[in-house]
UniProtKB/TrEMBL annotation:
<comment type="similarity">
    <text>Belongs to the Nudix hydrolase family. NudC subfamily.</text>
</comment>
<dbReference type="InterPro" id="IPR015797">
    <property type="entry name" value="NUDIX_hydrolase-like_dom_sf"/>
</dbReference>
<dbReference type="InterPro" id="IPR020476">
    <property type="entry name" value="Nudix_hydrolase"/>
</dbReference>
<dbReference type="Pfam" id="PF09296">
    <property type="entry name" value="NUDIX-like"/>
</dbReference>
<keyword id="KW-0460">Magnesium</keyword>
<dbReference type="InterPro" id="IPR015376">
    <property type="entry name" value="Znr_NADH_PPase"/>
</dbReference>
<dbReference type="InterPro" id="IPR049734">
    <property type="entry name" value="NudC-like_C"/>
</dbReference>
<dbReference type="InterPro" id="IPR050241">
    <property type="entry name" value="NAD-cap_RNA_hydrolase_NudC"/>
</dbReference>
<protein>
    <recommendedName>
        <fullName>NAD(+) diphosphatase</fullName>
        <ecNumber>3.6.1.22</ecNumber>
    </recommendedName>
</protein>
<feature type="domain" description="Nudix hydrolase">
    <location>
        <begin position="206"/>
        <end position="339"/>
    </location>
</feature>
<dbReference type="GO" id="GO:0016787">
    <property type="term" value="F:hydrolase activity"/>
</dbReference>
<keyword id="KW-0479">Metal-binding</keyword>
<keyword id="KW-0378">Hydrolase</keyword>
<dbReference type="Pfam" id="PF09297">
    <property type="entry name" value="Zn_ribbon_NUD"/>
</dbReference>
<dbReference type="GO" id="GO:0046872">
    <property type="term" value="F:metal ion binding"/>
</dbReference>
<dbReference type="InterPro" id="IPR000086">
    <property type="entry name" value="NUDIX_hydrolase_dom"/>
</dbReference>
<dbReference type="InterPro" id="IPR015375">
    <property type="entry name" value="NADH_PPase-like_N"/>
</dbReference>
Length: 397
């Protein structure tokens, strides 16, 4: 069966695009309120008491602070938001504004912030006393797999954590102006940076790394091309993907990457959807996965072994078997239990991706990435609904 989400994982962030008119809180007003809250003993704070709430999400080495909850059915997780008083020793300019929401009875606005506490006094943040329930810094990929995709609130918190990690990673890499080499300083509550050189003053915006990801389809033989990379866990197959080069359209990138990696020529390219992907390498802090169906004009595979371990055509029935809904539920529950163990102080846990089994207890012959990945939805859309019908004008491509 197909799994349909309201939005891709890491999308539908409730804090994104929140206007000042909605919350009566601009980034500058939120930053001023935070400064007062960070030093409540100061004369400025006493003269200007803040009417805003500020909630802080600490990160350590790219991992957000999460807490374990114990609902009746199974373990779950939520972000562990802290008041400013629980994040000691961090300079005000280190905080990155994520957005604001009106809370409670609709009269009080809360500002949400992220901050890296990997170094200095702030590194003491965390532990079982923080938040409602035990908490720990948990890898975002682990949280991604552990998220119940039917839980709207959990998906929203995952999107917030992804946005926060992308911004913090960008801040850690964009420390200097690319034009003159001077120090880059945060402005607009950390939403952008600006060169500190008065003769330059270049504005620096968060980096986005666009990636095309495509399911290549053999329409005549009702097959799809799936590939393996050496870093994949055993039996996992996925779509082809690659970064877009300067001066290249999305469609050109799909055709080039498919040809370079598999030797297959692609004709028509049809857009499917896109997904923020903040769990890539730290040097690429915010990838944007742009998904396509791509129709093969040639069928012989010639794998570039420097890029891929293997690539093969798979028929629709085999792909459907790889999309077993129960297996993803099992992986989600296993990973949620792992998060619970980490929050309670047990760092060692089972690797959920390595434990895909069919009902008989035998290892599944193959599986594809879970519902948190756009690759899953590209593959699932084709397997259960069929490839989209092409206009007759495309028949010769």
């Amino acid at each position: 069966m197909a799994i349909h989400l309201r939005a891709h994982a890491f999308a539908a962030n409730p804090l994104r695009g929140v206007s000042a008119a909605t919350t009566a809180m601009s980034p500058s007003a939120a930053a001023e309120a935070l400064r007062y809250l960070l030093d409540p003993s100061s004369a400025a704070a006493a003269a200007n008491p803040s009417q805003y709430l500020s909630k802080i999400l600490p990160f350590r080495r790219g991992r957000p602070l999460a807490r374990s909850t114990d609902p009746p059915a199974a373990p779950a997780w939520r972000l562990a938001w802290l008041p400013p008083s629980r994040v000691p020793g961090v300079a005000p300019d280190a905080f990155v504004f994520l957005g604001a929401l009106v809370e409670g009875d609709g009269k009080e606005a809360a500002a949400y912030w992220a901050v890296d506490v990997s170094e200095g006094e702030g590194a003491r943040v965390g532990g079982p006393a923080d938040g409602d329930g035990p908490s720990a810094f948990v890898d975002l990929r682990t949280l991604m797999v552990a998220t119940d995709w039917s839980d709207k609130d959990a998906m929203a918190e995952l999107a917030i954590a992804g946005h926060a990690r992308a911004l913090l990673e960008w801040h850690s890499t964009a420390k200097f102006c690319g034009a003159c080499g001077a120090k880059a300083v945060p402005t607009e509550a950390g939403r952008r940076k600006q060169c500190s050189n008065d003769s330059c003053k270049k504005r620096i915006y968060p980096r986005i790394d666009p990636v095309v990801i495509m399911l290549v389809i053999d329409k005549e033989n009702d097959r799809a091309l799936l590939s393996r990379q050496s870093r994949f866990v055993p039996r996992m197959w996925s779509c082809l993907a690659g970064f877009i080069e300067p001066g290249e359209s999305l469609e050109e990138a799909v055709r080039r990457e498919t040809w370079e990696e598999t030797g297959i020529e692609v004709g028509q390219v049809v857009y499917h959807s896109s997904q923020p992907w903040p769990v890539g390498p730290n040097t690429m802090p915010c990838q944007l996965m742009v998904g396509f169906f791509a129709y093969a004009k040639s069928l012989e595979i010639n794998v570039d072994k420097q890029e891929l371990e293997d690539a093969q055509w798979h028929n629709r029935e085999d792909v459907k078997k790889a999309l077993t809904f129960a297996e993803y539920e099992k992986a989600q529950r296993t990973s949620a239990a792992k998060v619970d163990q980490i929050c309670k102080g047990a760092e060692k846990g089972q690797n959920p991706s390595a434990d895909f089994k069919v009902g008989s207890g035998e290892p599944a012959p193959m599986f594809v990435p879970g519902p948190y990945a756009i690759a899953h939805h590209l593959i699932s859309s084709w397997a259960f609904e069929g490839a989209p019908k092409l206009p007759s004008s495309f028949s010769n491509l």
